[in-house]
Here is the input.
Amino acid sequence: MATETKKFNGRLVSGGILAVIALVIVIQNTGSATINFLGWSWSMPLWLILVIMFVLGMLLGGPVRSGVRKLRGVDPKTIKSS
Here is the structure.
């Protein structure tokens, strides 16, 4: 019976490094900050703002990238994924 070893690819390693960096930034920024947007104003801990921005970036990064490719006319089937 052969045991399977998990291979680490570049995306997993870079994602882990990015998560650690984000965690360090969040831990170091615990003060309060105020956000002003279209006349509304919110005051909340800076770490919470950073987490929200990080999650929004992760969620919107793929769709924005896909939209840019569509605008440029690049066929997604011809792009190799690493």
